[in-house]
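[INFO] parsing input record for hydroxymethylglutaryl-CoA lyase
[DEBUG] input buffer:
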Amino acid sequence: TRPSQVRIVEVGPRDGLQNEPVTLPVAVRASLIERLLAAGLTSIEVGSFVSPRWVPQMADTAAVMARLPPNPGGCYTVLVPNLQGFEAARAAGAGEVAVFAAASEAFSRANINCSIDESLARFAPVAAAARAAGIPLRGYVSCVLGCPYEGAVAPGAVAEVARRLVALGCREVSLGDTIGAGTPERARACVEAVALVVPPERLALHFHDTQGLALANIRACLDLGVSVVDAAVAGLGGCPYAAGATGNVATEAVVADFARLGIATGIDPARLTEAGRFVTRALARARAAPASG
Ligand code: HMG
Ligand code: MG
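[DEBUG] output buffer:
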Protein backbone atom coordinates (compact mmCIF):
# COMPACT_ATOMS: atom_id res chain seq x y z
CA THR A 1 0.00 0.00 0.00
CA ARG A 2 1.01 3.58 -0.55
CA PRO A 3 2.14 5.80 2.35
CA SER A 4 -0.42 8.29 3.67
CA GLN A 5 2.21 10.96 3.88
CA VAL A 6 5.54 11.60 2.22
CA ARG A 7 8.41 13.83 3.29
CA ILE A 8 9.76 15.86 0.40
CA VAL A 9 13.44 16.79 0.52
CA GLU A 10 13.84 20.02 -1.44
CA VAL A 11 17.14 19.89 -3.33
CA GLY A 12 16.68 22.86 -5.69
CA PRO A 13 19.04 25.26 -3.89
CA ARG A 14 21.82 22.66 -4.27
CA ASP A 15 21.15 20.18 -7.08
CA GLY A 16 19.29 22.81 -9.09
CA LEU A 17 21.55 25.79 -8.73
CA GLN A 18 24.83 23.83 -8.96
CA ASN A 19 24.06 23.19 -12.61
CA GLU A 20 23.12 26.71 -13.69
CA PRO A 21 25.59 28.53 -15.92
CA VAL A 22 25.25 31.58 -13.66
CA THR A 23 25.90 31.78 -9.92
CA LEU A 24 23.04 33.44 -8.06
CA PRO A 25 23.96 36.03 -5.43
CA VAL A 26 24.06 34.80 -1.84
CA ALA A 27 21.11 37.00 -0.83
CA VAL A 28 18.94 35.56 -3.62
CA ARG A 29 19.81 31.98 -2.69
CA ALA A 30 18.99 32.65 0.97
CA SER A 31 15.72 34.32 -0.02
CA LEU A 32 14.78 31.29 -2.13
CA ILE A 33 15.36 29.00 0.85
CA GLU A 34 13.23 31.24 3.10
CA ARG A 35 10.41 31.06 0.56
CA LEU A 36 10.67 27.27 0.45
CA LEU A 37 10.46 27.17 4.25
CA ALA A 38 7.41 29.43 4.12
CA ALA A 39 5.81 26.98 1.67
CA GLY A 40 6.13 24.24 4.29
CA LEU A 41 9.30 22.47 3.18
CA THR A 42 11.42 21.61 6.20
CA SER A 43 14.09 19.29 4.77
CA ILE A 44 16.07 21.54 2.45
CA GLU A 45 19.45 20.91 0.85
CA VAL A 46 20.95 24.37 0.92
CA GLY A 47 24.33 23.90 -0.78
CA SER A 48 27.55 21.95 -0.80
CA PHE A 49 31.07 22.17 0.57
CA VAL A 50 32.97 20.85 -2.43
CA SER A 51 35.93 22.20 -4.38
CA PRO A 52 34.99 25.65 -5.70
CA ARG A 53 37.10 24.85 -8.75
CA TRP A 54 34.82 21.92 -9.53
CA VAL A 55 31.50 23.59 -8.71
CA PRO A 56 31.85 27.39 -8.46
CA GLN A 57 28.07 27.84 -8.13
CA MET A 58 28.21 26.48 -4.56
CA ALA A 59 31.35 28.32 -3.48
CA ASP A 60 29.71 30.54 -0.87
CA THR A 61 27.37 28.07 0.81
CA ALA A 62 28.59 29.18 4.26
CA ALA A 63 27.52 32.76 3.50
CA VAL A 64 24.09 31.54 2.37
CA MET A 65 23.70 29.55 5.58
CA ALA A 66 24.66 32.52 7.73
CA ARG A 67 21.58 34.32 6.42
CA LEU A 68 19.05 31.56 7.00
CA PRO A 69 16.41 31.65 9.73
CA PRO A 70 16.38 28.80 12.25
CA ASN A 71 14.63 25.63 11.05
CA PRO A 72 13.68 23.93 14.31
CA GLY A 73 11.12 21.54 12.79
CA GLY A 74 13.39 20.34 10.02
CA CYS A 75 16.95 20.56 8.88
CA TYR A 76 19.29 22.21 6.44
CA THR A 77 21.43 19.65 4.62
CA VAL A 78 24.69 20.17 2.74
CA LEU A 79 26.74 17.87 0.51
CA VAL A 80 30.29 17.06 1.60
CA PRO A 81 32.77 14.92 -0.39
CA ASN A 82 35.46 14.59 2.29
CA LEU A 83 36.59 15.64 5.77
CA GLN A 84 37.57 19.12 4.57
CA GLY A 85 33.98 19.65 3.42
CA PHE A 86 32.61 18.20 6.64
CA GLU A 87 34.65 20.60 8.81
CA ALA A 88 33.33 23.56 6.79
CA ALA A 89 29.77 22.24 7.05
CA ARG A 90 30.04 21.84 10.80
CA ALA A 91 31.47 25.34 11.20
CA ALA A 92 28.54 26.69 9.18
CA GLY A 93 26.03 24.94 11.45
CA ALA A 94 24.71 22.30 9.06
CA GLY A 95 21.80 20.26 10.45
CA GLU A 96 22.66 17.24 8.30
CA VAL A 97 25.52 16.35 5.98
CA ALA A 98 25.29 14.16 2.90
CA VAL A 99 28.06 12.10 1.36
CA PHE A 100 27.70 11.05 -2.26
CA ALA A 101 28.85 7.84 -3.90
CA ALA A 102 28.01 6.26 -7.24
CA ALA A 103 26.99 2.83 -8.47
CA SER A 104 29.25 3.19 -11.51
CA GLU A 105 33.05 3.51 -11.45
CA ALA A 106 33.24 5.92 -14.38
CA PHE A 107 30.78 8.34 -12.84
CA SER A 108 32.55 8.18 -9.47
CA ARG A 109 35.78 9.15 -11.22
CA ALA A 110 34.15 12.00 -13.18
CA ASN A 111 32.24 13.39 -10.22
CA ILE A 112 34.60 13.06 -7.27
CA ASN A 113 37.87 11.96 -8.91
CA CYS A 114 38.19 8.58 -7.21
CA SER A 115 36.93 5.00 -7.37
CA ILE A 116 33.86 3.78 -5.48
CA ASP A 117 36.05 2.01 -2.89
CA GLU A 118 38.20 5.11 -2.44
CA SER A 119 35.11 7.27 -1.99
CA LEU A 120 33.73 5.01 0.73
CA ALA A 121 37.11 5.00 2.46
CA ARG A 122 37.04 8.80 2.33
CA PHE A 123 33.54 8.88 3.83
CA ALA A 124 34.51 6.75 6.83
CA PRO A 125 36.25 9.58 8.72
CA VAL A 126 33.42 11.93 7.70
CA ALA A 127 30.93 9.51 9.25
CA ALA A 128 33.01 9.22 12.41
CA ALA A 129 33.31 13.00 12.74
CA ALA A 130 29.59 13.46 12.09
CA ARG A 131 28.74 10.89 14.74
CA ALA A 132 31.07 12.57 17.24
CA ALA A 133 29.49 15.96 16.48
CA GLY A 134 25.95 14.58 16.65
CA ILE A 135 25.23 15.58 13.04
CA PRO A 136 23.06 13.12 11.09
CA LEU A 137 24.44 11.66 7.90
CA ARG A 138 22.66 11.11 4.59
CA GLY A 139 24.10 9.13 1.69
CA TYR A 140 23.51 9.31 -2.03
CA VAL A 141 24.02 6.66 -4.66
CA SER A 142 24.26 8.14 -8.16
CA CYS A 143 23.52 6.43 -11.47
CA VAL A 144 21.12 3.92 -9.95
CA LEU A 145 19.19 3.55 -13.22
CA GLY A 146 21.95 4.25 -15.71
CA CYS A 147 25.33 5.91 -16.11
CA PRO A 148 26.24 8.53 -18.73
CA TYR A 149 29.56 6.71 -19.34
CA GLU A 150 28.84 3.02 -18.70
CA GLY A 151 25.17 2.72 -19.68
CA ALA A 152 23.17 0.08 -17.80
CA VAL A 153 23.81 -0.32 -14.06
CA ALA A 154 22.87 -3.54 -12.26
CA PRO A 155 20.45 -3.24 -9.31
CA GLY A 156 22.84 -5.43 -7.31
CA ALA A 157 25.62 -2.86 -7.71
CA VAL A 158 23.29 -0.15 -6.39
CA ALA A 159 22.24 -2.32 -3.45
CA GLU A 160 25.87 -2.99 -2.52
CA VAL A 161 26.80 0.71 -2.39
CA ALA A 162 23.61 1.54 -0.47
CA ARG A 163 24.39 -1.22 2.03
CA ARG A 164 27.91 0.10 2.55
CA LEU A 165 26.63 3.66 3.08
CA VAL A 166 24.28 2.45 5.82
CA ALA A 167 27.10 0.42 7.37
CA LEU A 168 29.11 3.68 7.53
CA GLY A 169 26.31 5.33 9.48
CA CYS A 170 23.95 6.93 6.96
CA ARG A 171 20.48 7.17 8.43
CA GLU A 172 18.99 7.60 4.98
CA VAL A 173 20.16 6.65 1.49
CA SER A 174 18.89 8.56 -1.51
CA LEU A 175 18.79 6.67 -4.80
CA GLY A 176 19.77 9.01 -7.63
CA ASP A 177 18.62 8.51 -11.21
CA THR A 178 21.25 11.09 -12.09
CA ILE A 179 20.50 11.20 -15.81
CA GLY A 180 16.80 10.38 -15.70
CA ALA A 181 17.33 7.13 -17.59
CA GLY A 182 14.80 5.14 -15.59
CA THR A 183 11.47 3.58 -16.46
CA PRO A 184 8.80 2.61 -13.92
CA GLU A 185 9.66 -1.09 -14.28
CA ARG A 186 13.40 -0.59 -13.75
CA ALA A 187 12.92 1.95 -10.95
CA ARG A 188 10.77 -0.55 -9.11
CA ALA A 189 13.22 -3.41 -9.69
CA CYS A 190 16.07 -1.27 -8.38
CA VAL A 191 14.24 -0.24 -5.21
CA GLU A 192 13.16 -3.85 -4.63
CA ALA A 193 16.80 -4.99 -4.91
CA VAL A 194 18.03 -2.29 -2.53
CA ALA A 195 15.19 -2.96 -0.07
CA LEU A 196 16.58 -6.48 0.41
CA VAL A 197 19.62 -4.97 2.16
CA VAL A 198 18.41 -1.54 3.41
CA PRO A 199 14.98 -1.15 5.03
CA PRO A 200 12.81 0.83 2.59
CA GLU A 201 11.89 3.30 5.39
CA ARG A 202 15.48 4.49 5.11
CA LEU A 203 15.44 5.05 1.35
CA ALA A 204 14.67 8.19 -0.63
CA LEU A 205 13.88 8.51 -4.34
CA HIS A 206 15.98 11.13 -6.18
CA PHE A 207 14.83 11.11 -9.78
CA HIS A 208 15.78 13.48 -12.57
CA ASP A 209 13.17 14.14 -15.25
CA THR A 210 15.20 13.88 -18.46
CA GLN A 211 12.64 11.69 -20.21
CA GLY A 212 9.59 13.06 -18.43
CA LEU A 213 9.18 9.80 -16.51
CA ALA A 214 10.20 10.89 -13.02
CA LEU A 215 6.63 11.10 -11.67
CA ALA A 216 5.73 7.71 -13.14
CA ASN A 217 8.94 6.26 -11.67
CA ILE A 218 8.09 7.66 -8.23
CA ARG A 219 4.55 6.29 -8.44
CA ALA A 220 5.95 2.86 -9.35
CA CYS A 221 7.97 2.75 -6.11
CA LEU A 222 5.46 4.18 -3.63
CA ASP A 223 4.01 0.87 -2.46
CA LEU A 224 7.45 -0.55 -1.62
CA GLY A 225 7.66 1.21 1.74
CA VAL A 226 9.56 4.33 0.64
CA SER A 227 8.18 7.60 1.99
CA VAL A 228 10.88 10.18 1.21
CA VAL A 229 11.15 11.87 -2.19
CA ASP A 230 13.74 14.39 -3.34
CA ALA A 231 12.55 17.15 -5.68
CA ALA A 232 13.62 20.59 -6.87
CA VAL A 233 11.40 23.65 -7.05
CA ALA A 234 10.69 24.65 -10.65
CA GLY A 235 12.42 21.46 -11.81
CA LEU A 236 15.79 23.14 -11.48
CA GLY A 237 18.82 20.97 -11.74
CA GLY A 238 20.99 18.48 -13.44
CA CYS A 239 24.52 17.45 -12.71
CA PRO A 240 27.68 19.15 -13.89
CA TYR A 241 29.36 15.77 -14.44
CA ALA A 242 26.54 14.13 -16.38
CA ALA A 243 26.07 15.84 -19.74
CA GLY A 244 22.46 15.93 -20.83
CA ALA A 245 21.05 15.37 -17.36
CA THR A 246 18.11 17.71 -16.87
CA GLY A 247 16.49 18.90 -13.70
CA ASN A 248 15.20 16.98 -10.75
CA VAL A 249 11.51 16.23 -10.81
CA ALA A 250 9.73 19.51 -9.99
CA THR A 251 8.54 19.84 -6.39
CA GLU A 252 5.36 21.48 -7.72
CA ALA A 253 4.61 18.40 -9.84
CA VAL A 254 5.28 15.97 -6.98
CA VAL A 255 3.05 17.92 -4.58
CA ALA A 256 0.24 18.03 -7.17
CA ASP A 257 0.56 14.34 -7.99
CA PHE A 258 0.54 13.35 -4.32
CA ALA A 259 -2.54 15.52 -3.76
CA ARG A 260 -4.26 13.51 -6.53
CA LEU A 261 -3.24 10.28 -4.80
CA GLY A 262 -4.41 11.54 -1.39
CA ILE A 263 -0.85 11.58 0.01
CA ALA A 264 -0.13 14.43 2.43
CA THR A 265 3.02 16.54 2.02
CA GLY A 266 2.27 19.52 4.27
CA ILE A 267 3.22 21.90 1.47
CA ASP A 268 1.25 24.96 0.40
CA PRO A 269 1.08 24.79 -3.42
CA ALA A 270 0.51 28.54 -3.90
CA ARG A 271 3.53 29.51 -1.84
CA LEU A 272 5.59 26.84 -3.56
CA THR A 273 4.60 28.23 -6.98
CA GLU A 274 5.63 31.66 -5.77
CA ALA A 275 9.07 30.34 -4.71
CA GLY A 276 9.45 28.74 -8.14
CA ARG A 277 8.60 32.01 -9.92
CA PHE A 278 11.05 33.87 -7.70
CA VAL A 279 13.98 31.64 -8.63
CA THR A 280 13.13 31.40 -12.34
CA ARG A 281 12.98 35.20 -12.57
CA ALA A 282 16.26 35.56 -10.66
CA LEU A 283 17.94 33.09 -13.02
CA ALA A 284 16.59 34.89 -16.09
CA ARG A 285 17.92 38.19 -14.76
CA ALA A 286 21.32 36.70 -13.95
CA ARG A 287 21.57 35.09 -17.39
CA ALA A 288 20.75 38.40 -19.08
CA ALA A 289 23.39 40.29 -17.10
CA PRO A 290 25.92 37.73 -15.83
CA ALA A 291 28.56 40.36 -15.16
CA SER A 292 26.41 42.08 -12.53
CA GLY A 293 25.09 38.78 -11.10
P1 HMG B 1 40.48 16.44 -6.12
O1 HMG B 1 41.05 17.45 -7.05
O2 HMG B 1 40.76 14.99 -6.36
O3 HMG B 1 40.78 16.80 -4.58
O4 HMG B 1 38.91 16.63 -6.08
P2 HMG B 1 42.09 16.99 -3.75
O5 HMG B 1 41.81 16.40 -2.42
O6 HMG B 1 43.29 16.54 -4.52
O7 HMG B 1 42.15 18.58 -3.59
C1 HMG B 1 42.34 19.44 -4.68
C2 HMG B 1 41.99 20.86 -4.28
O8 HMG B 1 40.60 20.92 -3.92
C3 HMG B 1 42.76 21.37 -3.06
O9 HMG B 1 42.93 22.77 -3.22
C4 HMG B 1 41.79 21.14 -1.93
O10 HMG B 1 41.99 22.02 -0.85
C5 HMG B 1 40.47 21.43 -2.59
P3 HMG B 1 44.32 23.39 -3.78
O11 HMG B 1 45.34 22.95 -2.76
O12 HMG B 1 44.54 22.76 -5.13
O13 HMG B 1 44.06 24.84 -3.80
N1 HMG B 1 39.36 20.76 -1.92
C6 HMG B 1 38.28 21.39 -1.40
N2 HMG B 1 37.91 22.67 -1.38
C7 HMG B 1 36.75 22.96 -0.76
N3 HMG B 1 35.95 22.03 -0.19
C8 HMG B 1 36.29 20.74 -0.18
C9 HMG B 1 37.50 20.37 -0.82
N4 HMG B 1 38.12 19.19 -0.99
C10 HMG B 1 39.26 19.44 -1.65
N5 HMG B 1 35.48 19.84 0.37
C11 HMG B 1 36.85 16.57 -4.87
C12 HMG B 1 38.11 15.81 -5.26
C13 HMG B 1 35.89 15.55 -4.25
C14 HMG B 1 37.18 17.64 -3.85
C15 HMG B 1 36.26 17.20 -6.14
O14 HMG B 1 36.14 16.23 -7.13
C16 HMG B 1 34.91 17.83 -5.90
O15 HMG B 1 34.77 18.80 -5.19
N6 HMG B 1 33.84 17.28 -6.51
C17 HMG B 1 32.50 17.76 -6.29
C18 HMG B 1 31.62 17.31 -7.37
C19 HMG B 1 30.21 17.77 -7.12
O16 HMG B 1 29.90 18.59 -6.27
N7 HMG B 1 29.28 17.21 -7.94
C20 HMG B 1 27.92 17.55 -7.89
C21 HMG B 1 27.22 16.93 -6.71
S1 HMG B 1 26.84 15.20 -6.93
C22 HMG B 1 25.29 15.18 -7.70
O17 HMG B 1 24.83 16.18 -8.17
C23 HMG B 1 24.50 13.89 -7.71
C24 HMG B 1 23.32 13.89 -6.72
O18 HMG B 1 22.44 14.96 -6.99
C25 HMG B 1 22.57 12.57 -6.80
C26 HMG B 1 22.19 12.19 -8.23
O19 HMG B 1 21.41 12.92 -8.89
O20 HMG B 1 22.69 11.17 -8.67
C27 HMG B 1 23.84 14.05 -5.28
MG1 MG C 1 20.85 14.89 -8.47
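[INFO] The chain has a mean pLDDT of 95.
[INFO] shutting down worker
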